[in-house]
Amino acid sequence: MIHKRYTFTDKAQADSKISKFFDIDEEGNKIPNERAAFIYLDKFVLTQGEYDEEGVEIVAPTYTEGYALDVVWHDLEESPYGWKTYETEPESPCHTLY
Amino acid sequence: MATPSIAMIPSGYKDGKVYSVLPNSADGDFDFTRGSAATRVNAQGLVENVQILSSELVSNGDFSQEGSELITNGDFATDSDWSKGTNWTISGGSANCDGISATSNLSQVITSFTGKTFLVEGSASNVSQGFVYISLGGTDLQISVNSSGSFKHYVTISSGNSTLFISARNNFIGSIDNVSVKEVGQDWTEGVGVTISGGSANFTGNANAFLTQSNVVSSGKTYKATFTVSNYVSGAIDINLGGSTRQGNVSANGTYTFYISVSSGSILYFQEDFSNGFTGSIDNVSVKETTDDTDIPRLDYSDGSCPSLLLEPQSTNLLPYSEDFSQWNNIDATLISNQLSPDGQNSAYVIEGNSVGSFERIDKTTTTNATPHTFSVFIKKKTSAVSSYSGIQMGTSFSYVIFDSYNGTYNTSLNTNYDSIEVVDFNSDWWVLKLTATVTTSTRIGLWGAISEDGINISTSATGSETFFGAQLEEQSHATSYIPTNGSIVTRLADVATNSGNASLINSTEGVLYAEISALGLGASSSLGISDGSGSNRVLILLQSSGDIRGFIASNGAIVFDETYSGISTLNNNKIAVSYKLNQFILWINGVKRFTDTSGNTPIGLSDLSFDNGSGGSIFHGKVKALAVYKEALTDAELQSLTTI
After folding, report:
1. Which of A25, A74, A95 is facing B617, going by the closest CB pair?
2. Average pLDDT, chain B
């Protein structure tokens, strides 16, 4: 089992990559064809925003670039074909597995 | 009643396996995967990481235990048990000294106590002259009492004079009463420079100080050790399990956790860090056996004494500090840490709002998708009616939830209503509040110690406090089990149990699939059933996203039975049976025959029992109290008996 971070341009690109690991049955159920867990992370806050008493934003937070996705590949020892390009190793992952 | 060929009642498990009760072979066992840790409610009603394999291994880890009374007749109710010197009398419920002689002893021999720590207490009254000199263990305890009032002292006896002396000095005139000597710090051995008193072990800076407890750990195992440092002054402290490798170098107040593999020995050993001395206190010492296995099934006791197999979807706690509320944004609130928490530790916080004229709160804003999210948090029960009410809010556009932590009730104030608000009576000490709503792309969680005086309207005049633990925000339409975080968001992966049974245990021509199950929430369908490993031949029980219960049978790709019952809630525990036989298909729920179909062929090649729809989709998420497969179609009487709640 490996746990990898990938950064895509946007969610659509991530979804497109992920879709190859599912088949759709006659009832519309997504049937995984690879034992994997996809964890949609999107962006992380780099600097916190500031908010007033009612939670209205005063100073906008800043975010990481791209669309972050963590994947746990249960049966693989390295990223599958076509994924290696998107691997990233941030200094502060901001996300862990329990 | 016929005997099932496969029966799973949650009891036995190991990493990667859920054991079935029947058959006696391994053919009925489930393969289990998750790939991460997870929490459950254990048999003691505590939230617990399933990777924790043992109960608490440290005795008296909070140093609060007191032994039995060692003094006889300490209240001087009778004139007995004490050795009285000249001038001492016992009468009127006290020992009285008349002051005629300069010195005179009152004493009592107690049991031998070398190396142990004792709490010595009593009271003096009517003191008008001189003082009493109280000693225990020779020179270890030597205190003077020269005025009326109570006295309380801890003493660690280095060698064994086993007599308590109350020695009148300087012509003492006065009375002594309520004398008590009790052992404290049981199960611990204190070295030089360590005393156990006031509910902690206190190091005084000695370069050779140590504190030990024997027979705590075993070689070849891994342990999670936690302890709290308080009153820190200088130096550093190490923890050592087994006696071979020390860890820690702790040099600040706080609660610390270490995972330690033990290669030999059995001792728990605290020692100052390499002769640098340590001045500070140790408390709340805990050692539990643990593992890094990630495919451990969860037997969950949140519904009572009978466990359920808990099967949950993947979920992420989006709040990076679920317990350490000091890391949240603080708007004038006072935080008090180290409160007893639902996991048996001291990880809860009191949030106080004591200033009239402002709303004191803590909050945390996080990025979210504009989808249904659920926030859940533990709130400690108050033991008497409240005069102020705490506040909880998920998303600034949604209502303030004004919470009564005595009754477990709430009102909402202002803004938009949530999709759902649920209060769960977790145990005798805690509520769990759950809020669900479709949020925006930025969600602020706010917690107020006091937000209302009347329980209806929010007010800056409200003052008071509330104890919170375990804040969790997840992109789900219902709350899942607690996922602790400490500095990052954390994901628990999905539970998957599959691959029980074979063709010899599952009859394709007739049989019964039975389950006692409940759903975790609405919004997603869950399936379990027997199949040929595809969608073509299968017998399924489905908990529908709508909250309905569905029985489904397919034979050679054709649907032969598909009935949905909507009269009861899938969130409750339901007993469901689907019976199949040529031209006889029946769905039973909770003792009542709900649907019958008298036409159709039976499935072909059934060989697999799994918590999915047979082809790996619609994975079951819920609680399972029982699951069984029968190789024959049972009678109505048998099915009624089997499914009656």
Report:
1. A25
2. 94
| Residue B537 at interface with chain A, using a CB cutoff of 8 Å | no
Looking at the 3D structure of chain B, how many domains does it have?
4
Number of domains in chain A: 1
**Touching B: A residues 19-78, CB under 8 Å:** 25-27, 29-32, 35, 37, 39-45, 48-49, 51, 53-57, 61, 63, 70, 72, 74
ipTM of the complex: 0.87
User: What residues in B contact A57, CB-CB < 8 Å?
Assistant: 442
**Domain-located, residue B330:** yes
A 3-22 → B contacts, CB under 8 A: none
For residues B480, B482, B487 and B488, what is the CA-based torsion angle, rounded to 10 degrees?
-30
Q: Are B72 and B108 in contact (CB under 8 A)?
A: yes
Considering only CB atoms, A94 lies closest to which of B444, B489, B494, namely B489
Q: Given B434, B468, B492, which residue is the final one in a domain? A: B492
Q: Nearest-CA distance from A45 to chain B in Å?
A: 8
Strands (E), B291-382: 299-300, 308-311, 315-317, 329-331, 334-339, 348-353, 361-367, 372-380
Dump pLDDT digits (tens) for B60-106.
999 988 888 999 999 999 999 999 998 999 999 999 999 998 889 99
Write down the pLDDT at residue B243.
83
**Rounded (5°) CA angle B613-B615-B617:** 60
Q: What residue numbers bound the domain in which B549 lies?
A: 6-42+495-643
Average pLDDT, chain A: 90
Domain at B634, CATH number: 2.60.120.200
Residues sharing a CB contact under 8 Å with residue B346, sequence separation 6 or more, in sequence order: B228, B255, B284, B337, B338, B339, B340
Q: Could you say which residues from 24 to 43 on chain B have a Cβ atom under 8 Å away from some Cβ of chain A?
A: 33, 35-38
Separation of alpha carbons B351 and B467, rounded Å: 6
Give the model confidence (pLDDT) of B532-552 as tens digits.
998 999 999 999 999 999 999
User: Which pTM was predicted?
Assistant: 0.82
Contact B643, B575 (CB under 8 A): yes
Q: Taking residues B422-442, what's their average pLDDT? A: 95
Give the structural domain span for A47. 2-88
B17-75 residue pLDDT tens: 999 999 999 999 999 999 999 999 999 899 999 999 998 999 999 998 888 899 999 99
Contact (Cβ atoms closer than 8 angstroms) between residue A29 and residue B617: yes
Q: Hey, are the CB atoms on A37 and B33 less than 8 Å from each other?
A: no
B-chain CB neighbours of A48 within 8 Å are 365
CA distances from B381 to B67, B413, B511 (A): 30, 22, 49
Say yes or no to pLDDT of B235 above 90: yes
Q: Searching chain A, which residue's CA lies closest to the CA of residue B316?
A: A39
What is the pLDDT, as a whole number, of residue B140? 63
